[in-house]
Amino acid sequence: MNTAEVRQWLRAARTIVLLSGAGMSAESGVPTFRDAQAGLWADFRPEDLATEQGFRADPRLVWDWYQSRREGVARVQPNAGHLAVAAFQQRHPGRLLVVTQNVDGLHQRAGSPGVLALHGNLAQDKWLEPPRRCCDPARLQEGRPPCCPACGNQRRPAVVWFGEMLPEAELAAAEAAAGACDLMLVVGTSGVVYPAAGLARATRGRVVVINPEPSALDDAADAVLRGTSALLLPDLLEE
Ligand code: BV8
């Protein structure tokens, strides 16, 4: 299967879902999730840091990990892949929906409308415990993490940790779109994290995987394009 045949499928597809993972942002300079724990956190697994119990066990370590990822994302720009997707959506309103596992906000910054962010948003925080009357995000006690000066409730990143439910509305919309689309592009994901990866197995449409390496979703694909998103997507989405 080559790009020309996949481009045919794209041209014929009335509704397209693009399911993206960390590889979509790799060419922007954002380390993929597997690499995100380089440096100080090298001896921790992301699955341990990105959990509530990991945070409760060492709030400062996990908070600092997210701060360093936020600083990294703030320094980068959407890449040619993000921009090609947003330009396609501009030319073909309502035809392509982005469902992302990424929390870096780069699809949104590239101009993609209506992005379904299944795993939340790295740039936002929320309360660790259900907020009490005293908990006011505008009145925080500085710290790593910040907290409520009255009751000590801590702030945490507004991302979905392992073991946490995905936002219901986004997941339901993603499942409905996957079930109805003619074509799903699965871009830059190892395909090991569920339920997001399950969307590629629950779609009505053809599945095209775009990844320089083998992934756990290759077996669900009608076509696998071995390449990077910033190189392949502009070519694929030019029509
Ligand atoms: C859930 C936000 C229901 C945080 C993320 C035991 C107990 C509880 C749950 C489970 C369990 N066992 C399994 C589960 C389910 C679990 C899961 O799937 N675990 C995995 C590890 C087996 N899922 C969950 O917990 C989910 N919730 O199930 O709730 C529930 C509740 C309670 C009890 C039971 C069930 C929540 C999952 C969400 C976790 N949060 N992110 C944060 O970012 O810190 S997931 C995080 O990891 C990312 O968001 C992303 O989704 C995932 C990493 O995956 P990828 O995006 O694929 O990135 P990765 O680095 O792996 O791969 C990059 C790919 O890009 C590679 O293939 C590479 O080749 C490619 N690439 C590289 N460069 C390029 C490229 N591709 C294209 N171009 C390039 N240039």
Give a verbal description of the structure.
It is a single chain. The protein is of the alpha/beta class and 239 residues long. The protein folds into two domains: 1-30 and 78-119 and 166-239, 3-Layer(aba) Sandwich (Rossmann fold), CATH 3.40.50.1220; 34-75 and 125-159, SIR2/SIRT2 'Small Domain', CATH 3.30.1600.10. Helices cover 33% and strands 16% of the residues. The protein contains nine helices and eight strands. It has helices at 3-12, 23-26, 46-49, 52-57, 59-74, 80-91, 106-110, 168-180, 229-236, and strands spanning 16-20, 96-100, 116-117, 120-127, 155-159, 183-187, 206-210, 223-225. The protein has a six-stranded parallel beta sheet with strand order 3-2-1-6-7-8, sandwiched between helices. A two-stranded antiparallel sheet has the order 4-5. α6 runs parallel beside α9. The protein is elongated and about 60 Å long. The two termini are 19 Å apart. The model has no long low-confidence stretch (mean pLDDT 95). The structure holds ligand BV8. The site of ligand BV8 has 33 residues, from α2.
Strand coverage percent: 15-25%
| CATH fold label of the largest domain | Rossmann fold
Overall pLDDT confidence: 95
End-to-end Cα distance: 19 Å
Number of strands: 8
